[in-house]
Amino acid sequence: MAEREILTWDLYGTASRELAQAVADSGYAPTIVLGIARGGLIPAGSLAYALDCKNLFTMSVEFYTGVDTRLDVPVMLPPFLDRADLTGADVLIVDDVADTGKTLELVHDFCADHVRTARTAVIYEKPQSTIKPDFAWRTTDAWINFPWSTMPPVVRRTGVLDA
Ligand code: 5GP
């Protein structure tokens, strides 16, 4: 396994455009882009612009606590998305990476009974993912350094969610 896959901001610009082009070329025209916070938010915004889709929804899921260390299962965090808002929609679910695939699976299952169609798009997929994303820019088995989360926060905050 390679040590790290480094995605720079420069390369991210190319990646997000190429991923959007792959969605467009497939003929899929989402009526909603749903970004999984926090890692999927920047890709979701980029895809929403590139695919000319103004309906951008988000939901928060927490799974990882560090490099390759995770909770037992991914957990949805408030505020919770109202699934009724997805009724009849063609939803493109976007995350930064499908690693175990459990986060994408959770969100896909959460939406499944309400949407008209759902597709998944990620910048990276890993070979072990339990879900095969419909759209992925690249495959790697390395831990990925994303440009938005590689540098430490400029300020450390504790207990924010409990406040
Ligand atoms: P999964 O549920 O597919 O195992 O992981 C989903 C989430 O875990 C991703 O959205 C991301 O936030 C985090 N994650 C998983 N693998 C990596 C990785 O290689 N690098 C980084 N930076 N985050 C990862």
Overview of the structural elements:
This is Phosphoribosyltransferase. It holds the Pfam family Pribosyltran. Keywords: Glycosyltransferase, Transferase. GO terms for molecular function: glycosyltransferase activity. This protein has a single domain, classed as Rossmann fold (3-Layer(aba) Sandwich). The chain has three helices and eight strands. The strands form two sheets. The chain has a six-stranded mixed beta sheet with strand order 4-3-2-5-6-7, sandwiched between helices. It has a two-stranded parallel sheet with strand order 1-8. Helix 1 crosses helix 2. The protein is of the alpha/beta class and 163 residues long. The longest helix is centred in the N-terminal third of the chain and has 18 residues. Guanosine-5'-monophosphate (5GP) binds next to strand 3, strand 5, helix 3 and strand 8. The site of guanosine-5'-monophosphate has 18 residues, from strand 3, strand 5, helix 3 and strand 8.
Provide a concise account of the structure shown.
The protein is α/β, with parallel strands linked by helices and 163 residues long. Helix content is 24%, strand content 34%. It contains three helices and eight strands.
Task: Using brief descriptors, characterize the structure shown.
163 residues, alpha/beta, Rossmann fold, 8 strands, 24% helix, binds guanosine-5'-monophosphate, glycosyltransferase activity, Phosphoribosyltransferase, transferase, PRTase-like, PRTase_dom
